[in-house]
Design brief:
This protein has 90 residues and is mostly helical. The chain has one domain. Strand 1 and strand 2 form a beta hairpin. Helix 1 runs antiparallel to helix 3 and helix 2 runs antiparallel to helix 3. The longest helix is centred in the C-terminal third of the chain and has 35 residues. The two termini are 16 Å apart.
Length: 90
């Protein structure tokens, strides 16, 4: 596996959680949600009630984002050290 592929795999946790959070924000603005951040209701996208998904994305993805970005940075640094100094990791 090339180093470029390893870097892309290492960035996956942070980018997936950031993408889910941004998708929830986009869904919030386009789904016609009623209420406020503590009590959303009526989030309908193409006749499907997406309230639970949007609430999950707005609340949990922000929490997960802090951990996922830290993990991604640690993995990228580990890959950089392996590429730079030639360690096999075992």
């Amino acid at each position: 596996m090339t180093n470029r592929a390893r870097y892309l795999l290492d960035l996956r946790p942070g980018s997936l959680s950031l993408g889910a959070w941004q998708a929830a924000l986009l869904g919030l603005s386009h789904a016609g949600c009623q209420g406020h951040s503590k009590a959303l209701h009526g989030c309908v996208i193409a006749t499907i009630d997406a309230t639970a998904l949007i609430e999950f994305g707005l609340f949990w993805c922000q929490m997960i984002l802090r951990i996922a970005v830290s993990v991604s940075l640690c993995l990228v640094f580990s890959t950089w050290v392996r590429a730079r100094y030639g360690t096999s990791g075992s």
